């Protein structure tokens, strides 16, 4: 009964049990679990080797050895494929297989007791643990590579401030030997001005169980203090106590210097803008003023707040405001420069002229406007005064011209009458005094001179009006021939020879009346100053100067004159030197004026008793 | 001025128009709102006791951000008779008849009762929202001397 009970227990045990008998290892007792394990085909009395369903050959060999040696053996985590079923592929399962020799009373080996415990779950867990360990090692290695190659110092510090770990970068950066005591030395490498603050801040953070984030100067291996950023976070261990702080120290020196330089640069620019005695302002991309310099509030008597984003417009002379505002909107829309001259109200109510200029700057921060209002009131007023004076002078000049013209005109009639009366007198009266012939001739001459002067005066005024006449391309020869036609009487009387050489520069762009006047005066001048002992020979030549500018030569063989030193004499010289020849001064004065006003000049060379040559440089 | 957090749809704009027309009329708030491509600008007039909390509420409205106040100043009298909105709906048809709605090109011109400096703010804001207007009107030329 007990045997039966025992058998039943063994049969249903969750571990596999089997007896293998005899040297052939024939199946003896095989419980259900073992049967499943062996694939179900375990006919009692059959040798194991012929029904080697799932068992590997090596296991069979081990069994035989155990049988022969009588030494028990346990195969740990032995993998046995579990037979495939209809819906699952064969899966490996793991068993601890105990092989125990069975003995009879005489200690003779009867067979083997095979005991199999399924340890698949344990084995799988073990394998998972193994894989995890591998993965952990891999991650650990990666973390180390990262922490030890990244350009920053990493560290772990405990609640008392002792460094648990410092990455090698700390040694590289500080230049300390690997044997250095980090805890003792680190605080000494902090800039003295920062040390207390840093120690206090990290202490406080640790006491409060929070992280930190601060900058300080740390001494580098070369003795230079460099700005670094230290950041750390606590590692919270349940339930509440932080045990370690992990953190990193990064060098931020260059960024800080840059930011510092930027701040300084900005402050300096602002200082500069505030020191300039001009109204300086900046505006947003939309055209709203966001900065006025100090001088603006001094000039306007209004704060930036009071001025507001468009307040400048209300400072302008009210009639100018609308147009100025429209132009500003337009410039903001198109990005064109803004420029104008406006009257701007000062704090005392006085309007002063300003040039307002603004330009758009486009950079990475987007468009912005920079503007300046320059006080040009003094210049403006000066210009107004000058303009008024100029206008007055011009008017006076015109009045003078008119006066001279009218006077010369009005004098013509009495002169004409005088001449008539004198002629009449000469005709009807008889003179007995022999001197009278001379006197009569002198009166005649004086009258003629008077007439000539009046004509010249009228011509001067006339030419003054023609100075501004439009220019045209003129044929020099035909204009000269016209002039000679007018002088025909004198030419014939003096038997003068006039040669015209115009082929080198046949045309000239000039005012027609002006050219005529120049030719007339120079030629008639040459006729007037003819030498009494020879008929005049006059050469008129148009040519090009070395620089390619047109020029005109009028040369005679007349009286000539003493030019003394001046290369460009004042032409009243002629008059002084030849007081008996009428009207010379005015004619040359006219020529000079015309040529000067058109941007040229008149040159003269002369030898007494040989002749004179005038060279007109039409343009410089 | 502000930026819409995401572009406002026709329905969003319509809802805003109707709510604001109703509430602003009730509180005697007048002014104008410009909207285009996420750019928003608004001018409101009214009793400071109404405007201050209203501005607070509007600036905290989640539909827009980057709210900038350009000016805030007392005025002697209103320049706007009512509160209206100007924008480009995708489908103009549904909006034509709505009260207080304008297409940007038909938006009332800046009232000339305003000082030129204040009118300039409105004109710059209008340009910032809708972009530069083509010179369609025969404006007198720019002030160049
Ligand atoms: C750009 C913008 C402008 C607005 N303008 C107004 C306005 O003028 N009047 C108004 O009552 N609400 C305005 N609102 C809506 C308010 O922010 C708010 O949603 C509305 O007043 C409803 O508030 P309530 O829920 O407290 O009633 C505006 C919202 C936005 C996004």
Automatic annotation (TrEMBL), chain B:
One Pfam family from the record: BLUF
Chain ranges of the BLUF domain: 1-86
InterPro entries: Acylphosphatase-like_dom_sf, BLUF_domain
PROSITE patterns: BLUF (PS50925)
Coiled coil: none
Domain of life: Bacteria
Name this polypeptide is given: BLUF domain-containing protein
Source organism of the structure: Hymenobacter glacieicola
Source lineage: Bacteria, Pseudomonadati, Bacteroidota, Cytophagia, Cytophagales
């Amino acid at each position: 009964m007990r045997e039966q009970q025992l058998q039943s227990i063994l049969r249903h045990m969750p571990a596999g049990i089997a007896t293998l008998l005899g040297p052939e290892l024939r199946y003896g007792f095989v419980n259900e679990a073992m049967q499943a394990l062996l694939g179900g085909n375990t006919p009692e009395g059959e040798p194991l080797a012929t029904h080697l369903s799932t068992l590997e050959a090596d296991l069979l060999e081990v069994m035989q050895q155990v049988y022969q040696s009588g030494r028990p053996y346990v195969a740990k985590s032995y993998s046995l494929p579990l037979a495939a079923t209809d819906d699952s592929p064969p899966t490996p399962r793991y068993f601890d297989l105990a092989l125990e020799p069975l003995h009879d009373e005489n200690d003779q080996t009867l067979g083997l007791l095979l005991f199999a415990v399924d340890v698949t779950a344990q084995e799988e867990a073990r394998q998972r643990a193994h894989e995890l360990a591998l993965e952990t090692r891999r991650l650990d290695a990666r973390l180390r590579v990262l922490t030890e190659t990244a350009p920053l110092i990493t560290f772990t510090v405990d609640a008392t401030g002792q460094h648990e770990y410092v990455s090698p970068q700390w040694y590289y950066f500080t230049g300390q030997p690997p044997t250095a005591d980090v805890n003792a030395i680190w605080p000494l490498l902090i800039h003295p001005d920062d040390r207390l603050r840093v120690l206090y801040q990290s202490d406080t953070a640790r006491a409060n169980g929070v992280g930190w984030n601060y900058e300080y100067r740390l001494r580098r291996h070369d003795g230079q203090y460099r700005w670094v950023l230290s950041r750390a976070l606590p590692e919270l261990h349940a339930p509440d106590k932080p045990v370690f702080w992990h953190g990193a120290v990064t060098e931020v020196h260059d960024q800080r210097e840059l930011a510092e330089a930027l701040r300084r640069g900005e402050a300096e620019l602002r200082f500069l803008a505030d020191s300039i005695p001009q109204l300086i302002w900046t505006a947003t991309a939309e055209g709203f003023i966001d900065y006025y310099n100090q001088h603006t509030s001094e000039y306007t008597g209004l704060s930036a707040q009071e001025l507001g984003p468009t307040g400048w417009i209300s400072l302008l002379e009210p009639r100018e405001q609308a147009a100025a505002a429209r132009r500003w909107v337009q410039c903001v829309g198109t990005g064109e420069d803004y420029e104008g001259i406006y009257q701007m109200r000062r704090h005392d109510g006085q309007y002063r002229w300003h040039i307002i200029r603004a330009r758009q700057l486009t950079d990475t921060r987007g468009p912005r406007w920079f503007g300046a209002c320059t006080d040009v009131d003094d210049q403006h007023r000066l210009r107004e005064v000058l303009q008024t004076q100029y206008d007055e002078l011009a008017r006076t000049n015109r009045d003078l011209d008119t006066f001279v013209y009218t006077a010369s005109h009005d004098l013509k009639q009495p002169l004409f009458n005088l001449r008539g009366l004198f002629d009449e007198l000469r005709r009807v009266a008889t003179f007995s005094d022999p001197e009278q012939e001379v006197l009569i001739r002198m009166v005649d001459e004086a009258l003629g001179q008077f007439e000539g002067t009046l004509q010249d005066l009228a011509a001067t005024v006339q030419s003054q009006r023609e100075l501004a006449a439009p220019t045209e391309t003129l044929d020099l020869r035909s204009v000269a021939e016209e002039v000679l036609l007018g002088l025909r009487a004198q030419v014939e009387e003096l038997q003068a020879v006039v040669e015209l050489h115009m082929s080198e520069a046949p045309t000239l762009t000039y005012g027609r009346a002006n050219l005529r006047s120049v030719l007339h005066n120079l030629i008639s001048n040459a006729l007037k100053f003819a030498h009494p002992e020879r008929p005049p020979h006059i050469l008129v030549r148009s040519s090009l100067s070395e620089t390619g500018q047109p020029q005109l030569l009028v040369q005679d063989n007349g009286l000539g004159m003493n030019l003394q030193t001046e290369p460009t004499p004042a032409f009243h010289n002629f008059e002084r030197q030849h007081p008996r020849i009428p009207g010379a001064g005015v004619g040359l004065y006219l020529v000079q004026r015309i040529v000067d006003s058109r941007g040229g000049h008149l040159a003269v060379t002369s030898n007494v008793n040989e002749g004179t040559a005038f060279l007109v440089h039409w343009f410089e | 001025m502000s930026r819409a957090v995401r572009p406002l749809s026709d329905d969003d704009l319509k809802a805003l128009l109707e709510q604001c027309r109703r509430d602003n009329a009730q509180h005697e708030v007048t002014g104008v709102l410009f909207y285009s491509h996420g750019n928003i600008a608004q001018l409101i007039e009214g009793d400071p006791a109404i405007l201050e909390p209203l501005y607070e509420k509007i600036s905290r409205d989640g539909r827009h951000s980057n709210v900038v106040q350009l000016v805030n100043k007392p005025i002697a009298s209103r320049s706007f008779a009512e509160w209206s909105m100007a924008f480009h709906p995708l489908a103009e048809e549904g909006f034509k008849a709505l009260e207080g709605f304008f297409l940007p090109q038909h938006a009332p011109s800046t009232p000339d009762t305003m000082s030129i400096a204040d009118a300039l703010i409105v004109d710059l804001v209008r340009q910032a929202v809708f972009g530069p207007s083509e010179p369609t009107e025969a404006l007198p030329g720019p002030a160049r001397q």
